[in-house]
Amino acid sequence: MSERVGIGSATSRIDGIAKVTGRACYAAEHTADDLLHGVIVSSAIAKGRIRRLDDKAARAVPGVIEVITHRNRPHIAWFSKSYHDDVAPPGSPFRALYDDRVHFSAQPIALVVAKTFEAARYAASLIDVQYDASGFNTSFAAAQADRFMPRRKRSGYIPHKNRGDAVKALQEAPIKVGGEYHLPTHHHNPMEMHAATVLWNGDGSITVYDKTQGPQNVQRYLAQIFGFSTDQVRVLNPYVGGAFGSALRPQYHVYLATLAAKMLERSVRVVMTRQQMFTHVHRPEALHTIALGSDKEGRLLAIRQQATTATSRFENYMETVVNWGMMNYACSNAEADYAIAPVDTYTPSDMRAPGAATGMTLFEIAIDELAYACQLDPLDLRLVNYSDKDAMHDTEFTSKALREAYAAGAERFGWRGRSQEARSMRDGKELIGWGVATGMWDAMFSQTSASARLTQDGRLEISSASSDIGTGTYTVMAQVAADTLGLPLDHIDVRLGDSSLPTAPVEGGSWGAASTGAAVHLAVESLADKLIELVNKLDDKPLGQLTRAEAIFENGALAFKKNSASRIGLGELLKRGQVEEIRTDETAKPGWRDLWSQIRKSRNTHSAIFAEVKVDEELGVVRLTRIVIAVAAGRIINPKTARSQILGGVVMGIGMALHEETLMDTRFGRFMNHSYAEYHIPAHADIPDIEVIFVDEPDPVVTPLGVKGLGEIGIVGTAAAIANAIHHATGRRVRSLPITIDKLLEDCPTLS
Ligand code: MOS
User: Residue 594: pLDDT above 60?
Assistant: First the structure.
């Protein structure tokens, strides 16, 4: 009997060996004969026009083939609409080397192409540019005056719904808390730089290895802009070294590499530098005003949340920011106001749990403040205001095991041993603080196709154009297939990350496991049906006349459930049926089950996060010592890869709480700390013991397999649990993240 590998087993990654041995190739590792290297030249000004660009010295460098600028670039699409990708917000997408205009600092203004990377990089340093600079604003504070809500909304953006009279209720509430809360710009900072290797095939077609979360999104984008048919563009992204949303939209590296390949009819690779990784998408800076009112027992009477997030001057990037608190808590009066404010940077973009990671986190800090104002335990306050329904839409959830998550997390953490008062727990010179927060994210489902193909050697191949962005998709898809067909994992090949495979959306929003999983499940189920048909057609009827209900697939064989001694290997079955292979293609779409489309329900994941910090009373140094997170996210396909997803999200939440912040120099309009040395992401030494609990949450409605998705929930609320723990330790309420020493010691040289 082989080890159980189907849904629910904690299998190791099937792509793990390829990754740790270096066999797994990333976008910049693919190569071609006579590959050329492109190096991007970035603008020195934030806004204006290029007056003169002298490339004489660059062209004289041995090995340089071409310097591409707006002056000599080949023809590209003219309509702004041609540059829209599947997930573009409303506006006019940025077009590199289109004309002499500069829209943001470090915008690409030239691509130097040479036989070697070194020659291209050196030549790029010799490009001499003169500009006509114009006025700009990159101060988010100054942009507040221009905040607005565009008429045309981004697809997927969910507007909030007010209820009751929050203004009046707040005025009359016996207990009131709130204030201004701030979040800085964040950059995604995946380990792998954005890169593309474009192979010029010589027959008018190109093969593109790109760092992307959506190969078919990039395929359509490049075809539209450069005048290829989609058949002529194949985009592959079999491995992605982290993205977190930064690779949802096609970025300018792949555009420039394709532009050069088309112009020179050669294969070209372009890799961004770490500095250039700070010149495109980012999580927008955010300013919130939150006010909460309650009675003396902590029952919420009023919720008000106003938020502004940054966008660019050329696109209107919006995220769902103010809805989370209004959905999560029972309260008759709730009102919000959300708008965006334009600055002269590149357009912000989705970054892990966009909108919720910020809006819910800040809201959960305000909830903690309310608990103190009511002299209630912060967990009890949350339970007092617990809502079984989605309180904003007034709809049922398909499932919501948040109560169970609070209980399981509190138990494990030992929360009930906490003393309520701030500064009441210590360990020598260190103040101890315990904080709690709630997390919430969507359980989305997107139309996705997959195919399954069984061959005479008994091997199964599963294919979909979905991407494994490091989350474990290869592994969990193999498990979904194994669950139905009873094959060992080493008999299953999973192909993902290739635009030529069955249609799939960009991999994001935590919908991958649910959506691709559903498509794979359908494909292998119909393969199972075909195998039963085939066995019933064999002359000697080895399993009698078998129905689907009587059939069992195990250990690579099809058997009769009641008498598993009569069995036939799947490869053997194909051979005896004289069938080379069986292939099935299926598409899973929302509403494919009647039940699912008829009942409108809210679909969300929830979490409860408990954090412990120790703060040096003299120095203000915060040490994070413990985190327990309990997650309610439906059915877990693989507890091991699922746990890794949550760990990654929590680590990013730790970064948000204590480290991460991109700083803008508003005089130059440029992000200043554009390197790992100066943009601090948590290092191993910053990460404490993290315990992940999955609470049982059976949900037959949310998606066909009951799977909700896990990529993002781990970050939501984590920073609030830490901020609340710091308050508990020190009595200091910091409403601006990250919580650095200077903020903790603001009016006092020590905490004592
Ligand atoms: Mo996610 S921010 O949709 O990659």
Answer: no
356 CA → ligand 1 middle, Å: 12
CA of residue 482 to ligand 1 center, whole Å: 28
Q: Can you tell me which atom of ligand 1 is nearest the CA of 243?
A: 4
Which residues share a beta bridge with 437? 609
- DSSP, residue by residue, 21-64: TT-SPPGGG---TT-EEEEEEE-SSSSEEEEEEE-HHHHTSTTE
Tallying the residues shown for the chain, one arrives at 752
Q: How far apart are CA 55 and CA 49, in angstroms?
A: 17
CB-facing half-sphere around the CA of 290: CA atoms within 13 A: 29
Contact 752, 618 (CB under 8 A): yes
Is residue 737 a contact partner of residue 184, using CB atoms and an 8 Å limit?
Answer: yes
SS3 239: coil
Calculate how far, in angstroms, residue 441's C-alpha sits from the geometric centre of ligand 1: 12
Residues with CB under 6 A from ligand 1: 213, 244-245, 248, 350-352, 354, 508-509
Provide the pLDDT for residue 254. 98
pLDDT of residue 593: 54
Q: For residues 502 and 123, give the distance between their C-alpha atoms in angstroms, rounded to a whole number.
A: 42
95-148 per-position pLDDT tens digit: 999 999 999 999 999 999 999 999 999 999 999 999 999 999 999 999 999 999
What is the dihedral sign for C-alpha 306, 309, 311, 315?
negative
Using alpha carbons only, give the angle 328, 330, 332 rounded to the nearest 5 degrees. Answer: 125
**String of DSSP letters for 672-701:** S--STTTS----GGG--EEEEEE-----SS
**Is the CB of residue 518 less than 8 Å from the CB of residue 588?**
yes
592 pLDDT more than 80: no
State the pLDDT confidence band at 750, using cuts at 50, 70 and 90: confident
Task: Give the residue, by CA position, lying nearest to ligand 1 atom 4.
Answer: 245
Distance CA 74, CA 63 (A): 21
Report the percent of the chain where pLDDT is more than 70. Answer: 98
- Averaged pLDDT, 51-60: 98
Q: What separation in Å is there between the alpha carbon of 169 and the centre of ligand 1? A: 37
Q: Is the pLDDT of residue 547 over 90?
A: yes
265 tagged catalytic: no
What whole-number distance in Å separates Cα of residue 406 and Cα of residue 367?
A: 15
To test the ligand 1 pocket, which listed residue (188, 317, 352) has its Cβ within 8 A of the most ligand atoms? 352
List, in sequence order, the alpha helices (H) in 388-494.
402-413, 473-485
Backbone Cα Rg of the chain:
27
Q: What is the pLDDT of residue 528?
A: 98
pLDDT of residue 5: 85
The predicted-structure confidence for 287-334, as pLDDT tens digits, reads as follows 999 999 999 999 999 999 999 999 999 999 999 999 999 999 999 999
Q: Token pair of 664, please?
A: 């803008």
Ligand 1, closest atom to CA 712? 1
Pocket test for ligand 1, best of 712, 713, 716 (most atoms within 8 A of CB): 712
**CA 248 / ligand 1 centre spacing (Å):** 7
Tell me the pLDDT tens digit for each residue of 704-748: 899 999 999 999 999 999 999 999 999 999 999 999 999 999 877
Q: pTM, whole model, 2 decimals?
A: 0.97
pLDDT over threshold 80, residue 429: yes
Q: Give the number of the atom of ligand 1 that is nearest the alpha carbon of residue 244.
A: 4
Whether the CB-CB separation of 8 and 517 falls below 8 Å is answered with no
Q: What is the mean pLDDT of residues 173-184?
A: 98
- Give the ligand 1 atom nearest the CA of 509: 3
Q: How far apart are CA 489 and CA 556, in angstroms?
A: 10
Q: Choose, from 411, 661, 712, 746, the residue flagged as catalytic.
A: 712
From atom 3 of ligand 1, which residue's Cα is the shortest distance away? 508
Tokens of 329: 């808590």
